[in-house]
Amino acid sequence: MTVDSSITGKSFLKEIDFSQSELEFLISYAEKLKHHVSDEEQLDILKGKHFALLFEKQSTRTRSAFTVAASKLGAHTEYLSKNDIQLGSKESVEDTAKVLGSMFDGIAFRGYAQKTVEELGEYASVPVWNALTNQWHPTQMLADFLTIKETLGTYKGKNITFIGDGDNNMANSLLVTSVILGANINIVAPDSLQPSEKVMEIVSGLQQNSNSKVNITSSIEDGIAGSDVIYTDVWCSMGEEADFDRKYQLLKDYQVNENLISSINNPDILFLHCLPAIHDTNTDVGKMAYEKYGTVGLEVTDDVFHASYSKVFEQAENRMHSIKALLAATFT
Questions:
Q1: Do 77 and 23 have their domain in common?
Q2: pLDDT tens, position by position, for the chain (332 residues)?
Q3: Residues annotated in the binding site, as ranges?
Q4: Which residue range is the domain that position 132 belongs to?
Q5: CATH no. for residue 64?
């Protein structure tokens, strides 16, 4: 597969940074690296490259995916947490970007403010990849649409339904990426947790060149009708713990459970979740939810999470394969 030269040297700060053809290439390239290129062949693709993982937020999948992906391609990574450097405290983002850009070949940033990763991209002089901010989660999208393609054969024309907090980074990213790639997207959320006007302005602009249908609704029955993919996320992201009770009261009727899945009446339904998921009482948050509200699981029940139509662990593995494609394409 010939690498799309338009991606070479390019930062990936948000989904709209890449065109439809560029995103489609990355998804196809990830599929190729996963199934058709041996580990030995991949090892020299990024030999001698060094990447900084600049993480303000904790991470399981994203950190692991970048670390293993880089290693499989012959590159090295250095993990820099908020306690390791002085980003924003004693050193500005601009100064940090210039320093790291002079030493590393690329920077992955996972943190809070989109402004921070945008500044890193502006001043680093090397490619910068958004590994999650409060507004966007673009590398997750590569894995998600790869998983949809692998499971359903295509994502084009499929009906993707996100249920839960429609004003978070996952809902934002699914909205924008679905419209770019030609999937239909439903956001099912309470009125007070629906996508912002700013995000909807971006979506409206993208729709002018897309056949995607967009449905934003508080009605679960209306939103899930005809769904091919049901997607949910935790109700409280990192940094929102103080808002837990309010979010629970707003979202308790939006749980993905077997009754909801059965009502869709689609034998080929696919369930996705970017993880971590609160689906039982085997975590501190799960125990707290049970003790406080008497519920086992929050955004999804355990039977759905472990059902045959749930591909959450394949989706998690695909984080690594899709990030391999992103890293390789950036430097090829």
A1: yes
A2: 677 789 999 999 999 999 999 999 999 999 999 999 998 999 999 999 999 999 999 999 999 999 999 999 999 999 999 889 888 788 999 999 999 999 999 999 999 999 999 999 999 999 999 999 999 999 999 999 999 999 999 999 999 999 999 999 999 999 999 999 999 999 999 999 999 999 999 999 999 999 999 999 999 999 999 999 999 999 987 667 778 899 999 999 999 999 999 999 999 999 999 999 999 999 999 999 999 999 999 999 999 999 999 999 999 999 999 999 999 999 97
A3: 59-62, 86, 110, 137-140, 169, 233, 237-238, 274-275, 319
A4: 5-136+319-331
A5: 3.40.50.1370
Binding site residue list for carbamoyl phosphate: 59-62, 86, 110, 137-140, 274-275, 319
The three state secondary structure string of the chain is CCCCHHHCCCCECCHHHCCHHHHHHHHHHHHHHHHCCCHHHHCCCCCCCEEEEEECCCCCHHHHHHHHHHHHCCCEEEEEECCCCCECCCECHHHHHHHHHHHCCEEEEECCCHHHHHHHHHHCCCCEEECCCCCCCHHHHHHHHHHHHHHHCCCCCCEEEEECCCCCHHHHHHHHHHHHHCCEEEEECCHHHCCCHHHHHHHHHHHCCCCCCEEEECCHHHHHCCCCEEEECCCCCCCCHHHHHHHHHHHHHHCECHHHHHHHCCCCCEEEECCCCCCCCCCHHHHHHHHHHCCCCCCECHHHHCCCCECHHHHHHHHHHHHHHHHHHHHC
Question: What residues are designated binding site for L-ornithine?
Answer: 169, 233, 237-238
